[in-house]
Design brief:
mainly alpha; flat
């Protein structure tokens, strides 16, 4: 999405040649392939660990940190290497997005027309909102200190980053539609009226 927005805003005359079906298929294959590889490596490594504390996971889905808590293996070197691999992969994607958006914002701020700037920002902001929501909830879920970990908090945080971003994704992307904005405004006004 960030590269698509970059090409659309910074190189609009070259959009047809830079974002052809081959480029889109290549980017989709890279995203799906890296996600599949990372998931496959994480799952294979995690599920090969011996479990000595039972096999009941206190989550609504099978999450790697919860399975590691059940493992009796003290040597988690494989997991550390895989986590470093996954973080490197995610960091590379994050850097690519940041560089794309910095170039977009530089180009947008150079636009002479207020209407052009507004249109350019309105095409970028939904993607930034969705990515930020996903990253913030994921970071909170995976980077919280173990000292504040409890089964209820772990379950709540997992629910937060597994359900909230996908639920809000269509709402955020559809906020550019006037009818959706009007309907949402009516629902919020009704809800506020009911609270009063």
């Amino acid at each position: 999405m960030s590269y698509d927005r970059y090409v659309a805003i910074c190189k609009p005359l070259h959009y047809g040649t830079l974002m052809d079906s081959r480029a889109c298929a290549t980017m989709a294959a890279a995203a799906w392939g890296s996600g599949f590889l990372s998931s496959l490596l994480q799952s294979a490594s995690t599920f090969s660990l011996p479990l000595c504390q039972g096999n009941v996971v206190n989550q609504f889905f099978c999450e790697i940190p919860q399975i590691l808590k059940l493992s009796c293996s003290e040597s988690n070197l494989r997991e550390v290497v895989l986590i470093i691999f996954t973080i490197s992969l995610a960091f590379g994607c994050f850097v690519f997005m940041v560089v794309s958006y910095v170039q977009i914002f530089i180009a947008v701020l150079r636009m002479p027309s207020d209407q052009g700037r507004h249109k350019a920002f309105s095409t970028c902001l939904p993607h930034l909102a969705v990515v930020s929501l996903f990253l913030i909830t994921g970071f909170f879920g995976y980077l919280k200190p173990p000292s504040i970990s409890s089964p209820l908090l772990d379950l709540s945080v997992a629910l937060l980053y597994a359900v909230v971003p996908p639920t809000l994704n269509p709402i955020i992307y559809s906020m550019r539609n006037r009818e959706i904005k009007h309907a949402l405004r009516k629902v919020l006004q009704y809800a506020l009226f009911q609270l009063q």
